[in-house]
């Protein structure tokens, strides 16, 4: 991933059952948005929610140009095909496919998108939430050039593994590490799952800190109040910036190439910090403009 890759510190799920929240999405400071037609929408509301989301996407653009994704239902459901066809014609960055357990599922979604005229830059994000999905993650990651990232489906994965979701998450570390490893090996983004007790801010902060340590790019969130915490955890701290600046100075003054190469990560961190600062300033400015009388 490049230094100027889209920020993915926080992915906000917006349930199709709550159109008021969906219509207000540009106000939230999340890095990317996932409009949810699957778990976030009851069966009786799915068709209407699909139409509502389409209207909002057309009528309410995001001036900050953040990624907008549609979480579709699986193609093995009564709604999945229509979801994918609709997504192909909407101003979206991509679709999020649930419970992906093999490359075949990815190719089926790709075929529907292609047939429906989806633009070449519409991406596929795969929710890894089954044991087979974890074991076949490498096949999934390379199933299509449209693949952009992997997302952990924590609740379903824990249930399928027959483990409880604990604060330490050590009982899921093997599976989570495999997902991160595959994403890194194939140059994909990788987003950590939703914190099970998202109303507990202390637990949420701990979960974010774990995600950072384990190599995730960002955190799935469902409450807007937790977005800032995810952005801070997966961002760059002032201490990190100060240390990186000192390392870059030392590298510039060094006489051998080894030191310069050793501190290349410091230069990448400073570039990322500058990118975050630029984007956050842009969003703040747009938010002030939107609320101006």
Question: Key features?
Answer:
48% helix; TIM Barrel; alpha/beta; 293 residues; 13 helices; 2 domains
Structure description:
The structure is a single chain. The protein is 48% helix and 14% strand. It is of the alpha/beta class. The protein has two domains: 10-233, Alpha-Beta Barrel (TIM Barrel); 238-291. Strands 1-2-3-4-5-6-7-8 form an eight-stranded parallel β-barrel, surrounded by four helices. The longest helix is centred in the C-terminal third of the chain and has 28 residues, at 264-291. It is globular, with a radius of gyration of 20 Å.
The helix-strand sequence is: EHEHEHEHEHHEHHEHEHHHH
Average pLDDT for all residues: 92
Note the beta-strand portion. 5-15%
**What gyration radius follows from the Cα positions, in whole Å?**
20 Å
User: How many strands in all?
Assistant: 8
Q: What count of structural domains?
A: 2
Please estimate the helix content.
40-55%
Globally, the shape reads: globular
Give the termini separation.
Answer: 40 Å
Layout of helices and strands:
Layout: E1 10-15, H1 19-23, E2 32-36, H2 46-59, E3 67-71, H3 80-88, E4 94-97, H4 103-115, E5 123-128, H5 131-135, H6 137-141, E6 147-152, H7 154-161, H8 173-185, E7 189-192, H9 201-213, E8 218-221, H10 227-233, H11 238-253, H12 257-262, H13 264-291
Parallel strand pairs: 1-2, 1-8, 2-3, 3-4, 4-5, 5-6, 6-7, 7-8
In short:
The chain is α/β, with parallel strands linked by helices. It has helices at 19-23, 46-59, 80-88, 103-115, 131-135, 137-141, 154-161, 173-185, 201-213, 227-233, 238-253, 257-262, 264-291; strands spanning 10-15, 32-36, 67-71, 94-97, 123-128, 147-152, 189-192, 218-221.
């Amino acid at each position: 991933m490049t230094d100027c890759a889209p920020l993915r510190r926080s992915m906000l799920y917006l349930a199709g059952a709550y159109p008021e929240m969906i219509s207000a999405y540009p106000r939230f400071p999340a890095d990317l948005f996932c409009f949810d037609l699957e778990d976030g929408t009851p069966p009786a509301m799915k068709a209407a929610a699909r139409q509502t989301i389409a209207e909002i996407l057309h009528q309410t653009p995001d001036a900050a140009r953040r990624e907008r994704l549609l979480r579709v239902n699986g193609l093995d459901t009564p709604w999945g095909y229509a979801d994918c066809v609709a997504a192909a014609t909407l101003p979206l960055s991509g679709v999020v496919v649930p419970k992906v357990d093999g490359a075949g599922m990815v190719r089926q979604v790709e075929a529907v998108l292609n047939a429906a005229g989806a633009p070449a830059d519409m991406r596929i994000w795969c929710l890894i939430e089954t044991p087979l999905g974890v074991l076949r993650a490498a096949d999934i990651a390379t199933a299509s050039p449209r693949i952009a990232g992997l997302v952990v489906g924590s609740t379903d994965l824990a249930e399928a593994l027959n483990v409880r979701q604990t604060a330490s998450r050590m009982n899921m570390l093997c599976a989570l590490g495999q997902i991160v490893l595959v994403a890194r090996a194939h140059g994909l983004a990788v987003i950590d799952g939703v914190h099970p007790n998202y109303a507990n801010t202390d637990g949420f902060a701990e979960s974010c800190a774990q995600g950072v340590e384990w190599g995730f790019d960002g955190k799935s969130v469902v409450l807007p109040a937790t977005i800032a915490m995810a952005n801070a955890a997966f961002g760059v701290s002032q201490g990190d910036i100060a240390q990186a600046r000192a390392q870059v100075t030392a590298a510039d003054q060094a006489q051998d190439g080894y030191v310069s190469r050793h501190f290349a990560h410091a230069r990448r961190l400073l570039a990322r910090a500058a990118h975050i600062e630029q984007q956050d300033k842009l969003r703040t400015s747009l938010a002030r403009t939107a609320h101006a009388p």
